[in-house]
User: Fold this.
Amino acid sequence: MLKKMNEILSGVPATVVAGIFLLMDLIPHLAEEFFNTSLSSFFPFDFAWITVIISGLPLMYLAAWRIIHNPGISKISSALLITIAMLSAIAIGDLFAAGEVAWIMAIGAILEDKTTERARKGLKKLVSLAPIQGRRIVNEKEEMIQADSIRNNDILRVLPGETIPVDGVIIAGESSVNQSIMTGESLPVDKTAGDEVFCGTVNCFGTIDIKATKVGENSSLKKLIRLVQEAENKKAPMARIADKAASLLVPLALLIAVITGIATNNIVRAVTVLVVFCPCALVLATPTAIMAAIGQATKHGVIIKSGEALENMGKINTVAFDKTGTLTYGRLEVSDIIPFGKISVSDLLMLAASAEVKSEHPLGKAIVSCAKYRGLFILESEEFKMSSGKGIFAKIRGRELLCGNEMYLQSNGVYVGEHIKCELSRLCKEGKASVLVAEDNVCIGIIAMSDVLRPESKYMVEQLQGMGTEIVLLTGDNKETADYFASTAGIRQIHANLLPEDKVKNITILRKQGKKVCMIGDGINDAPALKNSNVGVAMGGLGSDIAVEAADIVLMRDDISKLSYLKILSDATVNTIKFSIGLSMFINIIAVTLSVLGLLNPTTGALVHNAGSCFVVLISALLYDRKFL
Assistant:
């Protein structure tokens, strides 16, 4: 009951009413101050009492709750100081000052709540998009069930226009899916059998049947919601410092007020000191700025899990990149087709794809995908034999083909000439994997495959270097591959052939050198390094679940160009917080000095200090809509 009444009194309608009564009480004060006319007889009672009751009771409730429930020094809060100031003003008969202190604090709290609510719009949108029903297929019959009743391996049917209820794999049908909520892509993505689909995305055109693979809290959408919720539940170091400072200000304010009262023999000056000492901006501006910045980042597809991560990002002077899936897309594509003799490029690719079509090796799959993409006809093999880690043999329409590495071909009697070895060496230096193709014991060509550098990687590296940031590549790839991609992206410091523990060692060495390190990765093997860096950033779109959980920041659209944006946002947030705290302390010092000298009374002191505090909160709130891109 008491809590419910407190919520009503601290709400916007009640605070508006309190403000109206405070304004009505201000009229006789102004008349007496400027026109030397007393209007008190025209009013049945002091209207400031209404303001004190409406805005003061929630303040007293909060101060009492913190004394009872908060541990240690945090029991002494800003609410306690303002409550003391309000009661002191009442004791000397300055009801307007008492009401003003309580009301301005209520306004500040509402500003914080509104900013927080605005910053959480992205989360509310995500929650509203969570599907509540799914269409399950049982014995070839459809049945509508609650989304939380869907289990792994259930077969679901999704009609055009419906939201996909869980993560799954299409087993029948084809369509286009709007994945903007998960990836930020503006256009629908074509999907067919074997393709993944994600919870919360929308099936645009055809009917598809999917097999559920991740349900409930494990689905992509629920995971995204959970990440945002985690971001809102953690406090930044500056917020903790502000809370601690607010606790220390209470005894300091009481001490100065007592000394002032004794030295001047004027209780009004002592009460004024308490009023102007209220640390509204110090307490309110920091969480407001943090929440506004987290909300700003969420709009751009970046999940910041904590205010601490946001603050630390601005201090980063070294960024360590994993390669595969981070600087690159993490998928192999055919990059070079080099025929020897009279065979054409198309025929070489067609023969290799026909030989590799039954292979499970990633290189073989990349060759087959390339042939299909180019519309080449893939022939059926009459015989197929695979030697694990070496190559394959296939017989196609009487033609005997070998596809594999140099050692595999040589072991099968194929001569590999110097000109072929030169090509292999060149391709290796470019970080490419090569498959030799031989027919009737003669090498007829090379097909090379390579990971693909993200087009934004080079520009992003240049941007970070321009901001004075050192760039390091930490990868498990061989040195030739690492050197090639690093040089292409403009990275000069390279560490290759690293195991997960080696990446951690490199991060630790950098930190011992006094550097603030941000690690960017996407795979399970990056998780330890993400945890051991000052700030860990994971690729959320294609990254592993473990990497996402280990990171402090998640790039939901796999857009690494957002790193420079994050540094700018972090710097802006920290600067805003510092400015807010500095302005608050400056106003406090000036106001306390004027109060001790008797130039401010409780009424004018509360007006000066708390109006400034509200102004500081508004400055912090502006972070949400500021343009950084």
